[in-house]
Fold this protein.
Amino acid sequence: MTAGPRVGILALQGAVDAHRAALERLGATVEMVKRPDQLDGLDALVLPGGESTTMSMLLDSSGLFDPLAKRLGDGLPVLGTCAGMILLASDVLDGRADQRWFSAIDLTVRRNAYGTQIQSFETDLDIQGLDVPFHAVFIRAPGVEVRGTDVEVLAEVDGEPVLCRQGPVLVAAFHPELTDDDRIHQLLIDQVGPR
Ligand code: GLN
């Protein structure tokens, strides 16, 4: 039997345990990433939901920001969910003045774009390439304001992209780890080539 891929979860802050469970169900070996040396040997990475402003500060103070930017620049397959999507965007609106991001996917996103009344909502999403809808939970989700022409839209809500891909970078405005449906995590694992 071949060992599953080694998948890291950025574990500085936010919703990490449910991601671990999903990845382990898919046969991955999971590494909780809190220090730069824990990036070594990863085949893929998850940037979870949480608070992108706090994660930005912790990425700086942990010394992870630059080494992680380098791995992303080298094409590490990555899934960013909610705050993780914000961290991977090319531009962030309504962020903190000192907030940093990785510019790994050509999207301008607005934090908390879905407004105060419906900060959280759930919906069944039709996702390109998946035959059955995916039950998606949105929590203070970011919205896409500008999308580069190289970005594929895999799902939309009311005409707005909520699941996008550009090469090895997959971003979801929702929280795919909050259901037992592992198909979004499977899309990440599918990006890992032969090792
Ligand atoms: N609103 C949060 C942020 O801006 C993201 C929310 C989430 O990850 N559920 O970072």
User: Anything to note?
Assistant: The mean pLDDT is 95. The longest helix spans residues 52-61. Residues 49-52, 82-83, 86, 111-112, 139-140 surround glutamine (CB under 6 Å).
